[in-house]
Amino acid sequence: GRRFRDKHGKQRAAIIIQSYWRSYHARKIYKNLKKRRWAANVIASTWLKHSKLAKIRKQLKLMRRRQLDFFHKKQSELRDQWLYISSHRRTIVHIPSLGLSECIRKTLDNLPLKENYQIGRLCELEDPNIDVIYVSPILASTQKLDKTFLSYRSIFLQQISHHALCISKLGEKSYISLRALVEQGSEQPASTTSNNTNERFVIIVPEALNRFPGQNMCLASLLKYSPKALKQIKKLIKDRSTYLVTGISHMDDLYISEYLDISIYGCEPESSYLYSTKSGSKRIFKSSNVPMPYGEYDIYNQKRLLESLAQLIVEHLDVQRWIFKIDDNYDGLGIAYCDIATHLPCYKNVVEEVEKSANQSVQKQSYAQILCELSDVLDKHTIYINKSQFNSWQEYLKVFLSEGGIIEAYPPSNSVTSITVCLSIEPDGHYSLVCSGDQLHAESQFSCWGLSFPQTSADSNRLNTYCSSIVEQCQQRNIYGYIDIDFITFIDIKTKQQNLWVIDLSIGYSEHISLSRVMQYITTGKFNPQMHSFTVKMKQLKQRLRNWQNGAPEYTIVEKNRYGILSSKLYHRNLSNLHYSIFFQICRTHGVGFDIREKQGTIFTLYECDHHEHIGMITISDTLKTTLSNFACYLNTIYQEITPADMQDSSNFILAVNDIENILGITQETNSNVSLNSSTS
């Protein structure tokens, strides 16, 4: 401080104080200005972002509106021209896309494999007026193919060789070659074969299949971002009558339809999604006046869930198990159930009180008692089908209430059979029943691994009546295309009468339709939608000629029943270690093949190329019992041959075999009881 002690010290101190003050004041103004400028930048950038997003949203809305207007316009044209289109040469562009919601797609493994279950669409080439353009969800690596697979490629598939194959007594043949032999009724190939069928299908592989790893995008979205594939399809369908068919509808279907300038054989994606949910299908069933399980739908809060379930338990005390289904789920993964009769402490007392006096006051008291205990019972004793996603009631309840869901009664019976009926609702209002079958369950009683085709568990007239009512309601809601209706049938313990409930509706082309098409194509058989029977025409020798008689033998055409076990979900990890030639050699060694003359045997469908751990299998025979026995026998034989000692838990073959053996055991027991009752009478 000595510098301030001389005669100019006060002046120097004043200068320093002023400079420090000016510096402080300027810095304060700068900071304030900087803060205001930062705020202005934030406001400006936020406003620009908001404006751009609003503009994009507006453009997207206009685009969606334009696509919807185009969709409705094309639907109207398809409806007016359907009679002509369905009877003349036409091209079907089939996109086996599973347009599930994003949250479901992220939980699914092998989504392209599940989409490729629809490869049986190629068997629609049975109709000479149909050409097929199939968009493949799987990209095969040519370097990884063995010679056997490449030999199939030259016969059946022209662009990708990872699809449906079968074997016969002649060795390996494609579906198309085998069908030609079946039509000839001979095991020797004709000297001149027509390539007409091979020229009527094309398989397109979108270039964007591997460009979005980890996103699990559906095939429609991948095709949308594949301009080369879209241009190729557009070039192929130029000046031809064409329409688009998809698996489960997605909003990107509208973009593809508009780009290709073709109509969609199906309904609007939003309508498809709405009425494919559990609550949406219940609305259709209720309007159709068809029998449904006791239950409640459109549940979005916990209070209503508990109150509705308590009321249902009081009203239906004979129901032992209650099922919870999330509205938006796939393959039974959103299902949980609780055995209320077993775990509810007050259940026995409630039953006794209601049996003594069923007046309103007793029911109210029982309702209050059940409601008090219900939350704790559900928390401790609910069983979840998808254990990898749901480990507790609170986790399941969170998803259930956010997505919405239903409560449904499980049939009060010891024997329950699920039935699937597949229909096609045409744009002009007519509909046809494509196939029907009894579901087979192995890993879960709510997940179907196969189908017994055609169904034999319920009266066909009754099923057709219910289907007709449901189709009428679907038409009122502008639902067209392919639909699957699920039923359950059971014998009521009290009345001993067979009941039939409608439980689910799925909109879209399914794997059941695909496999049934394969069976019809191979056997040249026909499905009778009135009787729910499948018959094939066969040559039968009218009169056997003796050695001394001359002339050609005379044949008559007879119709014979055929039954099939269809499955696309067989899995074995060791299949990827086997060459196809070795696998088919194993099958031939054990007599697993297709008899061309008798039109029965076993067909395999291969859905993937690089890993080929999954396989489809169709077994055909003249009786249902024989078909089930053969399927289980062949599957068990293959399992024993290809399973090493250290890979016992790497397959679902044995689960399928055990399920079939249980069915055969129940059938045998039922037949024994019927015979015993008949002899007693």
Description of the molecule:
With 681 residues, the chain is an alpha+beta fold. The longest helix has 77 residues, at 9-85. The strands form 5 sheets. A 9-stranded antiparallel β-sheet has the order 17-16-13-14-15-21-24-23-22, with helices on both faces. Residues 141-176, 187-194 and 673-681 have low confidence and may be disordered. It starts with 8 loop residues before the first helix and ends with a helix. The chain is globular, with a radius of gyration of 32 Å. The chain contains 20 helices and 24 strands. Helix 1 (9-85) packs across helix 8 (252-260), helix 5 (175-184) packs parallel to helix 17 and helix 11 packs across helix 14 (360-381). A hairpin with a 5-residue loop joins strand 13 (416-425) and strand 14.
Show the helix and strand layout.
Elements lengths: L8 H77 L4 E9 L3 H4 L5 H5 L14 E6 L11 H9 L10 E3 L2 E3 L1 H10 L16 E4 L14 H6 L2 H10 L5 E7 L3 H9 L2 E2 L4 H8 L1 H11 L6 E5 L2 H14 L6 E5 L8 E4 L1 H4 L3 H10 L3 H22 L1 E2 L8 H11 L1 E5 L6 E10 L5 E14 L2 E7 L6 H17 L4 E11 L6 E10 L3 H13 L2 E3 L4 E11 L10 E8 L1 E9 L8 H10 L4 E2 L4 E7 L7 E8 L2 H19 L10 H28 L1
Parallel strand pairs: 1-2, 1-6, 2-5, 6-7
Antiparallel strand pairs: 3-4, 8-12, 9-10, 9-12, 10-11, 13-14, 13-16, 14-15, 15-21, 16-17, 18-19, 19-20, 21-24, 22-23, 23-24
Helix pairs in contact: 1-8, 5-17, 10-16, 11-14, 13-14, 19-20
